[in-house]
């Protein structure tokens, strides 16, 4: 299982995530895809050289787009299973190894993972934690998989995926990107191809802070300005699904229209969670989702077994996240 770490002009973040692997997962199989400018690149080379880890470090010209850079890396990998996690993302490899093993037993599964925890320092004296729940998506036909996924989407790319899927994803992203639709588009492309296996444990801890992550807020209807990209996503997903067993074009078009419509409504200020009755039934109220909420609560409650199991990793990440607000990440010239 190869772990690919894209980075660009964030030396502190790369140092922190490599220190995390060195402390908790020293045998991890790592590839760093560095798109930094000259100053940060030299700092990153030094970090890799001084690390106790074995790291396949690959430097790229800073002008090369991130998805081109990653496609170059992934096309060259010799592993069937790939984890993609940027320099500010911290995987729980015990969970991802379970995901890999379950995928190995399920040739029709293309990706798998655990629940996603977001930790963000939003001000000098304030931090937040949020949860995104993964769910099994195991229908045999693509339209039903997309319907299940689209009823309560989650970021499907934070986990383990078959290399073939990662290549297809990156080729899609070379020419398509729309901020408010990114996770949905990537997820629908995956579900068009195959099944998702959920492991009911923390899988990834994603971090952000008020210094490095300062992208301007989009207007609520920015997606309408990118309507051509929404339609391009629709057509790409439809074409991908058409090659899979059980494809029904009329049904798949209906599912895509409904799922995309719900996303537009959410971006316009009317998310599904606000609909009367949505939180009283599936997909919101199921054993998997309820269990994830309890796990998330226990993760931040002193004295619980869940807290004890992850306390060292959470403390490490929290310390490095706080340090990032006053670090050489200020060299940053772009985002990964």
What are the defining features of this structure?
336 residues; alpha/beta; Rossmann fold; 2 domains; nine-stranded mixed beta sheet; 9 strands; 19% strand; disordered C terminus; TIGR00180 family glycosyltransferase
Overview of this protein structure:
- This protein is of the alpha/beta class and 336 residues long.
- It has 2 domains: 1-87, Rossmann fold (3-Layer(aba) Sandwich), CATH 3.40.50; 92-327, no CATH class.
- The protein has 12 helices and 9 strands.
- It has helices at residues 11-24, 38-50, 66-75, 93-104, 142-151, 163-173, 182-193, 222-225, 227-241, 249-267, 287-299, 305-323; strands at 2-7, 29-34, 55-59, 81-84, 89-91, 109-123, 126-132, 160-162, 195-209.
- Strands 1, 2, 3, 4, 5, 6, 7, 8 and 9 form a 9-stranded mixed β-sheet that branches.
- The chain is globular and about 55 Å long.
- Keywords: Transferase.
- One of its GO terms (molecular function) is transferase activity.
- This is TIGR00180 family glycosyltransferase.
């Amino acid at each position: 299982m190869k772990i690919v770490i894209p980075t660009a002009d964030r030396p502190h973040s790369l140092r922190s995530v490599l220190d995390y692997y060195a402390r908790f997962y020293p045998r991890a199989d790592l590839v760093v895809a560095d798109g930094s400018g000259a100053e940060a690149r030299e700092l990153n080379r030094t970090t890799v050289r001084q690390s106790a880890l074995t790291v396949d470090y690959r430097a790229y010209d800073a002008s090369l787009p991130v998805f081109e850079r990653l496609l170059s890396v992934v096309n060259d990998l010799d592993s069937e299973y790939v984890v993609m996690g940027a320099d500010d993302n911290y995987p729980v490899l015990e969970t991802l190894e379970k995901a890999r093993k379950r995928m190995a037993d399920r040739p029709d599964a293309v990706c798998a993972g655990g629940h996603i925890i977001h930790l963000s320092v939003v001000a000098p004296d304030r931090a937040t934690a949020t949860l995104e729940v993964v769910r099994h998506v195991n229908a045999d036909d693509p339209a039903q998989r997309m319907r299940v996924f689209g009823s309560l989407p989650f970021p499907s790319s934070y986990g383990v995926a078959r290399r073939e899927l990662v290549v297809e994803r990156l080729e899609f992203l070379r020419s398509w990107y729309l901020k408010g639709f990114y996770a949905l588009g990537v997820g629908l492309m995956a579900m068009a191809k195959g099944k998702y296996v959920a492991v009911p444990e923390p899988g990834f801890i994603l971090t952000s802070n008020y210094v490095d992550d300062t992208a301007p807020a989009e207007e609520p209807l920015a997606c309408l300005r990118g309507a051509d990209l929404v339609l391009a996503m629709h057509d790409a997903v439809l074409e991908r699904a058409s090659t899979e067993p059980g494809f029904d074009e009329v049904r798949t078009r209906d599912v895509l229209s409904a799922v995309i419509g719900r996303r537009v409504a959410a971006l316009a200020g009317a998310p599904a969670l606000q609909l009367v009755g949505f939180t009283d039934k599936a997909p919101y109220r199921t054993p998997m989702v309820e269990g994830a909420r309890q796990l998330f609560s226990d993760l931040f409650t002193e004295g619980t077994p869940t807290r004890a199991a992850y306390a060292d990793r959470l403390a490490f990440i929290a310390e490095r996240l706080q340090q990032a607000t006053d670090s050489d990440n200020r060299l940053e010239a772009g985002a990964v």
